Amino acid sequence: MTGPFDELLKESAIFARRDCLSPHFIPDSLLFRDEQIANIVKALTPSLRGERGRNLFIYGKTGTGKTSCVRYVIEEVKKLPTVRSKISYLNCRIYSSRYRVLSKIMNDHLPTYSKRGYGLVDIYEKLISWIEEDGKVLMVVLDEIDLVKDLDDLVYTLTRANSDIKNGSITIVGISNKISMKEELDPRSLSTLYENELVFPPYNSRELLAILEQRASLGLKDGVYDRAALGLAAAIAAKDSGDARLALKILSGAAEIAENEHREKITTAEVEKASKSAEEELAYELISTLPEHQRLVMYAIATLTIQGGRYRKLAEGTETYLFSGEVYDKYSAIANSMAKQPKSSRWYRKYISDLEMQGLIATYESGRGIRGHTKLIKLDYPAQRVKETIERGLFKEAEANVQKEEPENQETEN
After folding, report:
1. Alpha-carbon distance 311 to 315, whole Å?
2. Torsions phi, psi for 380 (to 5 deg)
C-alpha cells in the first residue's frame, strides 16, 4: 500500500544537496572575492593580535557577497590556535535595538549571566569587566546594521566603551546595503567611529555564471541541467542588479519546477518560469526588512495606489502615479497615527531615492502642465501585496514589543 508521504520522501531525481543552492550556504571557496576577503583580514588583523584596531564598515548591494565573506573570515579565525579576540555575529533583522545587541553579546560569551531582568547599565558594566579581566578584544559583527532602531545609541555605546576599557577593546564590523548609512548617524556618534570602509561591487554575468556552475556541481545531480539554463539565470540576475542571491533563487526555483513536473533536465524554460517569482520573493523580503520609516513611506505609497491617487484622478490614466507631496502627507499621517515623529521632507526625499535605487518604486518628473513641475511616484509591485507584507511586519513588531517589555524599559542610562 502506498503511503501519503512516499512520493515526497523518495530520493530526488534533480537535487543532490538542496542546501548548496541556498544563498546562506558558504562554499569552501568564494569566487571573485579574494581581494575583498584579503581586505577584511587586513582590517581585522590588529584586533586578531589583541591590539586596539579600527572599526570596519562594509557596503554593497544585496547579493554581492558581503555577509558570506565576513562569515568565511570568522570561520577561518576560529581555526587559529592562539587568538585573543572574541567574536559575536548578530543579524540586526533580529537583534534590532541596542539592548538586544548587548544582551546577545553577553549570551554568546557569558550565558550564565545573560538572564532576564538585567538592565542596560548592568550588562554594560559586566561586559567591560569581562573584557578587562584578560585584555580581550571583542569584535562585534553587525549584519544589516542600518536596521537597528536606536543605531546612534548603539554605535555611541560600543565606541565610547573603549574609553572605559583600561585593558582590551571593542571593534565594530558593520555590514550594510546602504552606502549612505553613516549619514543617518548624528555627529556625536560619527566622531567616535574611526573606521575603515570597504565597498563590494555587484557581480557581472560571467561571474554569476561561474558561481551558479560551482553551486550546481554541489547541489544538483550530474546531467540534470543545461549550461544554457545557468547562463540565462546569470544574465537575468546580472541585468537586474548583479545579485547572486537572485541568481541562486532562480536556479533553485527552476530545479523545483523540474522536479515537480517530473522533467529530466533544467532548461531555459524552467529558468524563465522561475525568474519572476524569484524576483518578487526577494522584493517582498526586502520590503519586510526595510528600516522603519522607509517601510512607512512604502505603506503610504501602497495605500494611496490602492485608493487611486490625485494624479490618476486628474490625468484619467490607467496606471497609478502619485504626487510626491501627497505621499509625504500620507506618510506623516500614518507616522502620527502610530505615535511616531515623521521625518523631515529632506529625509523623506532621501528615502524615496533609496527605495528607487532598490527597485521598489520608480519616479518621474511630471514636466509642465500638472501643478507645474513635480515628482511622480509609481509602485513597481502589486500594492495590496506590499500593504499586507508591511502590515504583517508591523503587527509582529507590536506583539514582540508587548512581550518583551521587561528589560527594554531599563534601557535608559542613569
Report:
1. 6
2. -95, 0
